[in-house]
Amino acid sequence: MTRPLIGVTAYVEPASWGVWREVPAVLVPQAYVRAVTAAGGRALVLPPDDLDADVVRVLDGLVLAGGADVDPGRYGQLPAPRTESRPGRDAGELALLDGALAAGLPVLGVCRGMQLLVVAGGGTLHQHLPDLVGHEGHRPAPGVYGGHGVRFTPGSLAARVMAGVDRVDSYHHQAVADPGRLAVTGWSDDGVVEAVEDPDRPFVLGVQWHPENAADPRPLTALVRAAGQRAGAPS
To answer: So which residues are the catalytic ones?
Structure first.
């Protein structure tokens, strides 16, 4: 049986390997690819490209990966001092998202990807979460994930995907303020939005934590399963 093809959006960042130092590179943490493969999918890494979204015609699902902040201009704000955005990535991913939604693909947004879903849906973000909650628990230190409790709306897609899970690991300094057209269906134990979804679509889910790093990466597994079911459905 053909594996469902899952697009995973990528970064363009300076990287070093071998004899090369600080070379602009297209990259994404291998954990995303590993999770997609383990769930029975085939990952296709997608660099930022806003010329068109034609690639969605060959995809069965889309993962909007984590990374730098969404440009605040996208939701009508000026950048705060700690905001670090990648406008080129925003443009490419928003084009892909529009194409994926138009095609009815399952979509999963992870961390930044969830925030991009919210902005695309007319919502807004808090640009620096510690100013709101008074602590650094969601990003304790550079490269250190923060573990915390989480709860979900009973009966929601998030609750079905995460049944029995009450703790997750996050790494973010921004958060959802207004979800726009999406429904909030998950919260951390300090009230920060942890999951959003589109109740009018079979599988459009955003999670604020990083499931790709979990031993049981349920949101990614569920995305691949939904993509496989869609790909195998009669046309």
So the answer is: 111, 210, 212
